Amino acid sequence: MKFAFLLLPLLPLLPLLPLLAQAQAPPLPPQADTLKAVASPLSFFGYAEAYYSYDFANPANKQRPDFLYSHNRHNEFNLNLGLLGVRYQDERVRGALALQAGTYVEANYAAEPPTLQHVSEAWAGLRLAPRLWLDAGIFTSHIGLESARSLDNPTLTRSIMADNSPYYETGAKLTFEASPTWTFTGLVLNGWQNIQDNNQNKALGSQIQFKPAQKLALNYSTFFGEGKNEAGPSLRWRHFHDVYLTWQATPALNIAAAADAGWEQQSPGSDAYHAWQAGQLVARFQTTPKTAAVFRAEYFHDPKGVVVRTASPNNLRTFGLSAGFDYAPTERAMLRLEAKQYQARDFIFPTGDELWLSSTALTALLGVSF
């Protein structure tokens, strides 16, 4: 029972087990002579976001700090993320397969085998009961307010807390849609954002989503397990908690807030832990039907370098501010502009052969979803 705490993420799901009885949907009413069109369960999708970013540190290798995985190339036009995929969904079966490319993929999937780096999603799902799904494979992370796709997020660029928590996961998950208000998910994973597992250790996760109203959503996600995917029998346990909310305060104002807290053993078998914390607050103002202004404040503190290692002996403690402008001429396309600055307590941001206390960048993005 030494690691019994790994079962904690699944405790919220235990009271729901009696609800998993099978049920049969009522038959459809007989049709008249006229034929009724039925939507195909198979659909195709694509996504592309091209960007230009200028970092005022003017890094000689054109690479922005290593802990920034999205929009990370300096003074060049490039593709952050391109996707092509297919989805399938009927009453009992669902799944998706999507391939990807871009500088985000190059940076964030560098530790994966080359044959797997370009797989964004590859999963299959089966409905076990009317409101219970089992999905397995490679899927998007259950952690965090932000995803890899800029057009799905309130801001153009990702926060440091998003770039240094999982974007993708590999494993199996049970999702129980208890009601339109509550959704519960339990997961068994290879680890902390990895496809290939380099050891015998697995991780557990949980997610609870609460939507008391159409304009308000709350999310609580956890991770318990080994986080570094290192080969060998020794391991350091990591436990992590993520909380976020989104609130449509007025027809023109959307507010999002998120907070992370994580702990990892200092050494295998140790009772001492290193900790890190992060948070952000985002306000998005819809200035016209096609334009919006976006503002974000964020904080990240990882004093022992658990998830972020910087170019200096000091590790990351920084505060960031960003301001952006969005123009969406259609529902499927958006032009985004953003200015962002990070201010650190120590000299950690590289520029040539020096280190700076701050990092300032301007980024422009054109994204299309189809």
Automatic annotation (TrEMBL):
Gene3D superfamilies: Porin
InterPro entries: BBP2, Porin_dom_sf
Signal sequence extent: 1-23
Presence of keyword Manganese: no
Tagged with keyword Signal: yes
Pfam families: BBP2
Sorted UniProt keywords: Signal
Protein's recorded name: Porin
Species for this entry: Hymenobacter saemangeumensis
